[in-house]
């Protein structure tokens, strides 16, 4: 797991830790290693006794046992910590509770000042700072002519959110890389089938081929059943690899058609990617393997050329028995290129957990070669961000009703269609323009698909259910969008000029876990709706101005979260 020290000047926890650090140095001057431990207080049966707590007293007492410390149990240490606290405008009061926790209540005045800064300066300065120059996120990465499946959809959604988070933290250069599977022996049969189907090369284009997946399947059937075709398919691979013009052109056509299909998915999701497919690294494979060979890392194994790495009993196959290269050979060349040519400091790969071993071995090989530092957390570093399977409501791998694969475009269209249908049932929609309805159905529909995925810890399997993700009362994007629109409507009803009124997250990133951000957004929305909005009248109340400000501050934070999650939002809903 990635562990990166972030610089978070806005973090309340970190600021409190600094205050407590001063006290700890006075309380136990002979224990300079004690690190302040400050956490947000959890609510006990719905009640919160304090905002934050310092947990050091128990550990300190245990450490001092046997020494003449003069403290009366851990609570005594807690008392001393409180007594030695320096003056701080953040803290209203502190008290020692239970076995020695120091409960901290924040100063209302200090909170109000922070809110004021948020309203005036916006949220950008609240972002933690990432001490890394160039970060590359390798995500989505579907395979040409094969299906782009729900696994690729998960990679696309998670990778995009991680990229947005890294951008928010001002990574100097962020590369969103689409490592397209655009090379391999499957092109032999595709090209052979293409030549048979369209003797005139001018005739093959997007419309002529129609469904590339069906085309792939048809050529696979022939490959498996017609020996003569199989022979020609093999020959085509050789021709393609030797750079034969017509073969090269056919390959390009197939790639272009596939890419156009992928682009439709990216467009709907609002995801940007920079494509550099596997084919790009072809010529780099032999020289990179040569370097590893010179380091004595490549050995012969049953006709193949392989690399063994620490703690794993199977090797990486760098060159197959037939002399060809594979997925691993390409990743070796690609990582070498990223480290040496693109000077990437942090390489993040987003794929299903099933590829964990592939990446573990790749990184270990690079460490063995001395191309990555020995310490896993030293830079330049590599991280595999894995995720679980997408399951259908029957608990099995997700598939659509009829066919055995899912067209992602259709899946997204379905989400939008369902949102539009439920929108049209509402009275308020009567005065909306068609464009407003379309835009809202898109923001809500695509947002729902993303949020349903992101809110789950990515390592667990996730069940795809339209009914669940579109439920307006659950922990869904729909519910959040609705709350957001309601706050907007309060602001509108107040008739005040927001700009006029204005005058008066770190955890999620350190562990690369978007669900932490979702949890935060959901809690914020719940607190706003259930604690504030249902109890406090806003428009027309004597406290209207300050309550509107609180609404506005909530909106700023909600929008920033939506933005990081790649979810569009609507002011009306
Ligand atoms: N194309 C691969 C797949 O569909 C994912 C590629 C991930 N990136 C990489 N550098 N290996 O499983």
TrEMBL record:
GO biological process, one term: arginyl-tRNA aminoacylation
Keywords of the record: Aminoacyl-tRNA synthetase, ATP-binding, Ligase, Nucleotide-binding, Protein biosynthesis
CDD domains listed in its UniProt record: ArgRS_core
Recorded catalytic activity of this chain's protein: tRNA(Arg) + L-arginine + ATP = L-arginyl-tRNA(Arg) + AMP + diphosphate
GO CC list: cytoplasm
Arginyl tRNA synthetase N-terminal domain mapped to chain residues: 14-106
Gene3D superfamilies (alphabetical): Arginyl tRNA synthetase N-terminal domain, HUPs, Isoleucyl-tRNA Synthetase, Domain 1
Ligase as UniProt keyword: yes
EC code(s) of this entry: 6.1.1.19
Ranges for domain DALR anticodon binding: 480-567
Gene Ontology MF term list: arginine-tRNA ligase activity; ATP binding
NCBIfam families named among the record's database cross-references: argS
Family (UniProt): Belongs to the class-I aminoacyl-tRNA synthetase family.
Stated name of the protein: arginine--tRNA ligase
Organism: Vigna unguiculata (Cowpea)
